[in-house]
Amino acid sequence: MELRQLRSLVTLAENGFSVSRAAEQLHLVQSAVSQHLKQLEDELGTRLFHRQGKRLAGLTEAGEAAVVYARQTLAGAASLAAVGRDQSGQTSGTLRIGATHTQARYILPPVVRRFAGEFPEVEVQIHQGTPGQLVELVVRDSVDLAICTEALANEPALEAVHCYRWNRCVIAPLGHPLLAVPVMTLELLCEYPMITYVFGFTGRGNFSTAFAREGLRPRVVLSAADTDVIKTYVREGMGIGIIADLAYEPTLDADLGRRDLSHLFPWEVTKVAYLRDKYLRRYQRRFIDLFQEASAQMNRRGR
């Protein structure tokens, strides 16, 4: 059994059982991928795929188990190689970070800038996605670290490190009557059309639960995964925006007023996660340290 056979198996499963796409991703000809799969089935003595004619249509029960262990084996081999690079003093490489738009746009820039100053030979890649997609990416070892608020702590294969707390604010064009109320309440928010995050992003679940507990139904007229999109439609006059407070920028958002909502909603916790059994290279551990340092400063500011 060879690593290249396991790599072909995993890559095929991740590409909808398309031999052509798997071969393209692996920089191989299709016949080589097909040969790897046949050799693996012959060695294991069982069929790994359901077939429709000559086409692979899915994994058998044995195939599903084989993919799980193949991923673990490939991850272990990558960790062994990483140990060797660290011990030899090699400082170059690639840091693959999975993050939601809010993290990539508003939180990571100063952290990445510091990291790049310390490790100029390391390429930083930022892969954006939904929290669910980020969990899948890090479990598959397609990214080294994943950063978001939802989903990470629920995956047993991951080590999730709590970093910073955040809450929400309401934004509206300057002069909007809601910005002048003496006391902000959930009932007052419900008097206006709202624009906020889609479910699965940036605390939307707790946002909805807070209203439901009071028997209220917010009138959400538009939802988006991207905070900048929410701001755009607030500026268009479609409604008030409920966003992560850390995403309000006083200088760039000077045309929008802001009111704190931390007394109305539970605090959220953003985490950074990685495969529990993964060997983290020095520069990967250093990035986590830098992110935690930045998080500590945000926690002290209460933002």
Report a brief summary of the structure:
It is built from ten helices and twelve strands.
Beta-strand level of the residues, as a percent range?
A: 15-25%
Radius of gyration: 23 Å
Helix fraction, binned, reads 40-55%
The DSSP helix count reads 10
Which secondary-structure class do the elements indicate?
alpha/beta
How would a textbook summarize the main sheet? 5 strands, mixed
Q: Could you give the distance between the termini?
A: 52 Å
Q: Please write the string of helix (H) and strand (E) elements.
A: HHHEEHEHEHEEEHEHEHEEEH
Q: How many strand segments?
A: 12
Broad shape:
elongated
Average pLDDT, rounded to a whole number, is: 88
Strand order of the largest sheet: 4-3-5-12-6
The unreliable regions are none
Explained architecture:
The strands form 3 sheets. The chain has a 5-stranded mixed beta sheet with strand order 4-3-5-12-6, with helices on both faces. A 5-stranded mixed beta sheet has the order 9-8-10-7-11, covered by helices on one side. The protein contains 10 helices and 12 strands. The longest helix has 27 residues, at 61-87. Helix 2 (19-26) crosses helix 3 (30-44) and helix 5 packs across helix 10. The chain is 43% helix and 23% strand.
